[in-house]
Amino acid sequence: MAIAEVTIIPIGTATTSLSGYVAQMQQVLAKHTEVSYQLTSMSTIIEGPLDQVWKAIAALHEAPFLSGAQRVSTSVKIDDRRDKASSSAQKLQSVKDKLK
After folding, report:
1. For 1-100, where are the alpha helices, taking DSSP H only?
2. How is the beta sheet containing 2-11 ordered, strand by strand?
3. By three-state DSSP, how is residue 78 classified?
4. CATH number, residue 48
5. How sure is the predictor about 16, in pLDDT bands with cuts at 50, 70 and 90?
6. Are 44 and 30 in contact (CB under 8 A)?
7. Structural domain tally of the chain?
8. What is the pLDDT of residue 52?
9. Residues in domain Thiamine-binding protein (predicted)?
10. CA atoms within 13 A on the CB side of 86
11. Coil vs helix vs strand at 69
12. Per-residue pLDDT tens for 25-84?
């Protein structure tokens, strides 16, 4: 399973507030039932099969254009571990275990 951190920034919008775009992108993600996702204050974490994660990212990148943005900057980090099952929760728990 792949874990991706995605940040999408619409550029050239009428306002400095981006929360409307973020809300729209969360609605887009809700339609991608093959992946799970978590909104954070700075990005969105997406987990699932790599091909489905890419499909979700492509849809997210397109969403601001559909709302009138003329330029969109998208940053993606992917952790695709194949030697054993992995998840955001498992990664966090591993660190917590080491802090004990």
Report:
1. 19-30, 50-66, 88-99
2. 36-39, 44-48, 2-11, 71-80
3. strand
4. 3.30.70.930
5. confident
6. no
7. 1
8. 97
9. 4-96
10. 17
11. coil
12. 999 999 999 999 999 999 999 999 999 999 999 999 999 999 889 999 999 999 998 898
Encoded tokens for 96:
């917590």
Q: Is 15 helix (H, G, I), strand (E, B) or coil?
A: coil
- Domain ranges, residue 11: 2-99
Confidence of residue 86 (pLDDT cuts 50, 70, 90): confident
- Give the pLDDT score at 12: 83
- Distance (Å, whole) CA 73 – CA 95: 31
3-class secondary-structure state, position 33 = coil
DSSP code, position 4: E
Sign of CA dihedral 90, 32, 49, 43: negative
Q: At what angle do helices 19-30 and 50-66 cross, to 10 degrees?
A: 140
pTM of the model: 0.88
Give the Cα-Cα-Cα angle 26, 29, 32 (nearest 5 degrees): 160
